Amino acid sequence: MRKWEKLMIPLLGVVLVVFVAVPLAYGVSPADSDVLYSTYLDWLQGKPVGLASVSVQIDRSLEDMVVVVVDYSEGEPKILYVGTSTAPLVKVARIPVGTYTEREVVDGEAKEVLKTRFRENKLLVIVSAKGYWGARFVEFSPEKPLSKLEVRVPLKEEGSGVTSYSGGRVSASVVSLGTKIVDNIKLFKLHSVPGVTQKVIIDENDKMAIDSFSQAGNAWSEEVDPNGWERSGSVNVPFGYAPDNLGASNGEMKVVYGRVRYRLDRYYVCGYLLCRPIYELVPEEIVGFSKIETLSDPGKIPSGLIKEAHLKTAGESFRVFFHDLSDDGGVYLSTPSLSFCIGEGVNVCFTGSVDSYRKSEGAASRIAFQIIINNWRGSRLYYAKYSSRGNYYEVPLEWGS
User: Fold this and answer.
1) Total Cβ atoms within 10 A of residue 9
2) Beta carbons within 8 Å of 135's beta carbon, 6+ residues apart
3) Tens digits of per-residue pLDDT, 278-298?
4) Neighbours of 61 (CB within 10 A)
5) 10, 197, 249, 317: which sits with the fewest CB atoms below 10 Å from its CB?
6) Secondary structure letter of residue 31 according to DSSP
7) Torsion angle of alpha carbons 183, 186, 190, 191, nearest 10°?
8) Which long-range contacts (C-beta less than 8 Å, at least 24 apart) are formed by 313-317?
9) In the chain, helix, strand, coil percent, each to 5?
10) Chain segment 210-223, per-residue pLDDT in tens
């Protein structure tokens, strides 16, 4: 036996442990052996792959149910799974995008440990059944070869007349219907006091979370109710443009609105008995800023917030970061009464409100504020992280002696 053949035998054993024995230990069904084998083959070719075990949580028993898992990590939708299981196993990309250090206790001693940061994956989970449907986005960083995801999909009751009869085969397909740049979605608010400038700092990998929407269509026509959209979760959206001079000064308060590119996809989901079209509106990129409202800042920190002080001796510039874990339960800014249409060949319109969220996960998605003191008006400048349920992204300021 040649040397490389001897090395391959133990190597294959390690791979089988990682991609077969480990998933089985986590409760992965042997029925998913095709996914495990496909992942194993990709691994042998050096492809950055991993697995995601998706636990779909629904609040009722459903008849003729179909679960669809779609990958939006590359922008274009890629259907990973179609079937009747509420615990599908799917193959995902596990792409390293850099490193970071984290303090850990190793052998009883606190040490800085170098770790790999992976590109965030975006999955859309669709549930379609007789009389009900639902959709929900989930985003995660594949830190481990096997990611365990619990996705709660809220179900919407749907009346008759929206479905058609299938040919007895479970299936799903997707067609992209175009994109649309939507103006005037609120992104963040800047504060200032006399003598101070506050700027937003947007680095290369920073993102804001913005609502996605879905709607069950009518199988007998291409009409979609402009007011019938349901929120399907927030999606981390990258910035395609971030000017260096965006700031508020000398007692101004600025509300910054963005231009967000949305894409429209139409899914056709079939169970053994029925088929249903489902439309999905997905924010892809913040392509720029559309307008800025300039107001007067009260120059006071609201009561109940924890004040932090920056002393005159500490310098004339500092940054305020948000590293708290995100909480999708609260809205950062809400943009009411938006109306727009998308469609190539069809005209699908939306009317409603779009919410933005702060999502800061570790050092990622970490939009910060730069505070520049041009003229001191006291011995200290107070600031606070304006937070409501962990979701606000404001830094109010106040002079103090």
Assistant:
1) 9
2) 124, 125, 126, 127, 153, 214, 230, 232, 278, 280
3) 999 999 999 999 999 999 999
4) 7
5) 10
6) G
7) 130
8) 316/372, 316/373, 316/374, 317/370, 317/371, 317/372, 317/373
9) 10, 55, 35
10) 999 999 988 777 77
